[in-house]
Amino acid sequence: MALGVNFSEVDEAKEFTDRPGAGVYVCTIVKAENVPEKQYIKAYLDIAVGDYLGYGKSIEDRTGQDWGYIPCYFSYKPTALGMTKRNVRLVAESSDYKGNIFDEFSDTEGKVLEGKYIGIVIGEQEYEKQDGTVGKLFKLPKLVLAQDAMDKPESFKVPELEKLAVKPAETQLGSFDTPF
């Protein structure tokens, strides 16, 4: 039984080792979705300028998954509204938005953010993969004006890599002498 695949019409996948790391980026908000049970809007950011332009979209096109995007959260819990107001304002200013961004953010459940620009400062942290090896993932980004991220990225302090905590060696009972 043949597979029915004509490999002469298929481009071979390139080895994919280069990925964005900690740094300062200008991003586009490609999708925003309300997560009411958590009281936040989850936004998906994709790099809009530079060597990693469209990185998230390229991952999604290749895998069908959204893990290449940088997640960002706009909480509408009462204790976080001040930070959300600041971040929504930064999106509006970064995108030269002329409407009432705060009312529209609420009325559209965050959809007004889609297609807008934002600057980010982002660090990385290590994590233990299922196979026991150590991988890296992005920490939550700090939002900044897109123009500042583009014009003066050196003015931002990029967080150091957050190393995985070393697990203390497990001790077995009876592996040491006791005076009792």
Describe this structure in words.
The chain is α+β, with helices and mostly antiparallel strands. Helices cover 20% and strands 26% of the residues. It is built from four helices and seven strands, in the order E-E-H-E-H-H-E-E-E-E-H. It has helices at residues 55-63, 81-94, 101-107, 146-151; strands at residues 23-35, 40-47, 70-75, 117-122, 124-128, 134-138, 142-144. It has a five-stranded antiparallel sheet, sandwiched between helices. A two-stranded antiparallel ribbon has the order 5-6. The mean pLDDT is 88.
Number of helices: 4
C-alpha geometry: globular
Termini separation comes to 72 Å
Spatial sequence of strands, sheet with the most strands = 3-2-1-4-7
Helix content: 10-25%
Structural class: alpha+beta
Percent strand = 25-35%
Order of helices and strands: EEHEHHEEEEH
Arithmetic mean of pLDDT: 88
Q: What does the largest sheet look like?
A: 5 strands, antiparallel
Poorly predicted ranges: none
SSE order and pairing:
Blueprint: E1 23-35, E2 40-47, H1 55-63, E3 70-75, H2 81-94, H3 101-107, E4 117-122, E5 124-128, E6 134-138, E7 142-144, H4 146-151
Antiparallel strand pairs: 1-2, 1-4, 2-3, 4-7, 5-6
Comma- or semicolon-separated keywords:
4 helices, 7 strands, five-stranded antiparallel beta sheet, 20% helix, 180 residues, alpha+beta, globular, two-stranded antiparallel ribbon
Report a brief summary of the structure.
With 180 residues, this protein is of the alpha+beta class.
